[in-house]
Amino acid sequence: MKEFHVETKCIQEGWKPSNGEARVLPIYQSTTYKYDSGEHLGQLFDLSAPGHMYTRISNPTVACVEEKIAALEGGVGAMCTSSGQAASLLSIFNITSSGENFVSCSTIYGGTVNLFAVTMKRMGIEVRFARPDMTDEEIHALFDEKTRLVFGETIANPALNVLDIERFAAIAHAHNVPLVIDNTFATPVICRPFEFGADIVIHSTTKYLDGHASVVGGVIVDSGKFDWQASGKYPELTTPDESYHGVVYTRDFGSAAYITKARVQLMRDLGTTPQPIAMYILNLGLETLALRMERHFENGLAVAKYLEGHDKISWVNNPALPSNTQYERCQKYLGGKSCGVVSFGVKGGRDAAMRFMNHLQLAQIVVHVADARTCVLHPASTTHRQLTDQQLVDAGIGPDLIRMSVGIENIDDILADIENALSQV
Ligand SMILES: *Cc1c(COP(=O)(O)O)cnc(C)c1O
């Protein structure tokens, strides 16, 4: 059968009931699974038979959501995690050890900057930041023998620059390492990074994939395309894992080597496991993802166009605006669309920005982004507060920047709220 379109996958992938079973994804709220023989369970521990043995490692409800997201991204497998942060950490730690390093685009989520630059440093893993305006030579110069991957965000949170995925994939592959993409803001509805050469995709499912600001979660998706064996840099995938009596992931699991190791080794040992009930809620969100993204994009662009024509606004950033520096990349990678996030500066700097925010009524001030409700945030004093001035500049965040996450309410109500708040500035 022909591959389904994205709207259909959102509904139909994942849980596929057989005769007489529940139509809707059941919540398997169980830590454990029953087997008829000790031998069978032993085989599960040896990874020589498929099946669930303990919910820290896998669970039927979670597995259905993983299948749906893998289908949406076009990957061979996925693993859900308890948060987006856990997905970022595990995606890197799976193939990078103490004493090794990786290259990351500098325009990324502030929480990821902390994880990379502070916490992973304590694990002996070094991050080397590449600014998107660096030349290829300058980025190549960041690599050495110990570099294990390249990391970037499709649409950066909150700078909103669109990553030149093909360029960063070519740079990574020239060094025989994979490109890992955080596709949180774009979602597979707007961009499928594997089609542009990315090897691993991660998400904070807390954002658009859930879409209702209900559950924190993350996911790692494996394209199955990176040749770990040929690269020669990943003995953890290509030589025996003593913690599984000598399993060799590339030999025993083929194109799913990376995602299998992430689950059976890292999830087993680190336990950043999602709850079945949370994945049930995530699945409800996923069913309407394609519909919601369409409206988020339309409303976001309408807000951006309105602000662009307003005399109290100094600048507006949304990649789908024809005047935007990212417009061409937006056509190429996002099909001319974007998410519902718009950033802008209110004339008068930080104080005017605060005044504007405090007078919004429909749009509320929350530490969140990318859900059905319109909300605003001042990153420099909140999510990116821990960053130094230089890190703020590198991340593309000025003191006057307001990030508005445009929801799926009626656009006239959203614009009236903005108009009223601007009249108070
Ligand atoms: C929110 C976010 C994260 C972190 O995800 P959590 O689910 O909050 O742990 C990572 N990357 C991006 C782009 C995000 O927006």
Question: What do you see in this structure?
Answer:
- The protein has 425 residues and is an alpha/beta fold.
- The protein has two domains: 279 residues, 3-Layer(aba) Sandwich (Aspartate Aminotransferase, domain 2); 133 residues, Alpha-Beta Complex (Aspartate Aminotransferase, domain 1), CATH 3.90.1150.10.
- The chain has 18 helices and twelve strands.
- It starts with 5 loop residues before the first helix and ends with a helix.
- The structure holds pyridoxal-5'-phosphate.
- Pyridoxal-5'-phosphate binds next to helix 4 and helix 5.
- The site of pyridoxal-5'-phosphate (PLP) has 17 residues, from helix 4 and helix 5.
Main beta sheet, described? 7 strands, mixed
Q: On the 0-100 scale, what is the average pLDDT?
A: 95
CATH topology description of the largest domain? Aspartate Aminotransferase, domain 2
How much of the polypeptide forms β-strand, as a percent range? 5-15%
CATH architecture of the largest domain: 3-Layer(aba) Sandwich
Radius of gyration: 22 Å
CATH superfamily of the largest domain: Type I PLP-dependent aspartate aminotransferase-like (Major domain)
Count of discrete structural domains: 2
Describe the strand arrangement of the main beta sheet, using strand numbers.
1-7-6-5-4-2-3
Bound molecules: pyridoxal-5'-phosphate
CATH class of the largest domain: Alpha Beta
